[in-house]
Amino acid sequence: MDHGQAVVEEVSGWLRVFKDGSVDRTWTGPPEVKFMSEPVKAHDEFINGIATRDVIIDKIRGLRVRLYLPEKKLEEQNNTFPIILHFHGGGFCISQADWYMYYETYTRIARSARVICVSVYLRQAPENRLPAACDDGYDTLLWLRALAKGESQESWLKDADFKRVFLIGDSSGGNLVHEVAARAGRIDLSPLRLAGGIPIHPGFVRSKRSKSELERPESPFLTLDMVDKFLSLALPLGSNKDHPITCPMGAAAPPIDGLTLPPFLLCLAEIDLIWDTEMEYYEAMRKSGKDVELLISHGMGHSFYLNKIAMKMDPDTATQTEILIAGITDFINKH
């Protein structure tokens, strides 16, 4: 795509920002991996036990969600399904709820955990800097509350259990799990109940490089260049990585011990580039007396479970993905 404009910022393979402020998100990396960022069309019919639908929940600003509905088994005819409210990753700058990598992953989770997944099409930076994505996630939770109250209607959620709503997010979406849960703790959500939060490899960082950032290998889904450039484009102007959205365990963030949070399952990858700051968050949660479990994927890097190619080529990646989904399923079943 030729804009006829000078490029002022580029994140290799993912994104180019031009002098006029326009953004090109055309994939320019290896063509053999492009399919993972291709959109998957919604389908009302059940395919492998899951149907999907896109729904506009705020017509004024065009806020949309993708719904994943599991097909009821014979013994489930009178059952209701918990809800997982999903926030996709992408450093707040790229990716969409309908990308193949999320479709593949969240159809699996919906089938395994027997949940309805509500995945938010989050606004992207730099056109919409933070807290725009956080607002989208929070407003979607309020939409679910309106459904629970009967103030709004969505036929695909008629069998939803609004007393078992879980927040789940990948990478930067994990940051939204904390932020949306913290906001939710300040209001009355009833009759909806927030039953848990599941940040998966959350993008928690600090301005100062951590030891793991300096010493651990980069991965296809996370490099230092991506961390630095995406966050420079996404954070509010004048802010740095110590901002509460990217460093909720830092001095600039509201103290964690003062937050009302549901039980958390923090999912980490053992060789993640940002392991050290993710563990800082875990320790801060524990020190504050929060209910937090830790699930570690051994020998894995950032967002490994979204990499369909690695799952096909590497038995360890496939096995660790199965363990991760089983752990998420178990957490949901317990709460």
How are the secondary structure elements laid out?
Elements: E1 7-11, E2 15-18, E3 23-24, E4 50-58, E5 63-70, E6 81-87, H1 100-113, E7 116-120, H2 132-149, E8 160-170, H3 172-184, E9 194-200, H4 211-215, H5 224-234, E10 264-269, H6 275-287, E11 292-297, H7 308-313, H8 315-334
Parallel strand pairs: 6-7, 6-8, 8-9, 9-10, 10-11
Antiparallel strand pairs: 1-2, 2-3, 4-5, 5-7
Helix pairs in contact: 1-8, 2-3
Could you explain how this protein is built, in words?
Strand 8, helix 3 and strand 9 form a beta-alpha-beta unit. The N and C termini lie far apart (48 Å). By secondary structure, the protein is an alpha/beta fold. An eight-stranded mixed beta sheet has the order 4-5-7-6-8-9-10-11, sandwiched between helices. Strands 1-2-3 form a three-stranded antiparallel beta sheet. Helix content is 30%, strand content 21%.
Number of continuous helical runs: 8
User: Radius of gyration over alpha carbons?
Assistant: 19 Å
Shape descriptor reads globular
Stretches where pLDDT is under 50 for at least 5 consecutive residues are none
| SSE string, helices as H and strands as E | EEEEEEHEHEHEHHEHEHH
Give the averaged pLDDT, no decimals.
Answer: 96
* Major β-sheet profile: 8 strands, mixed
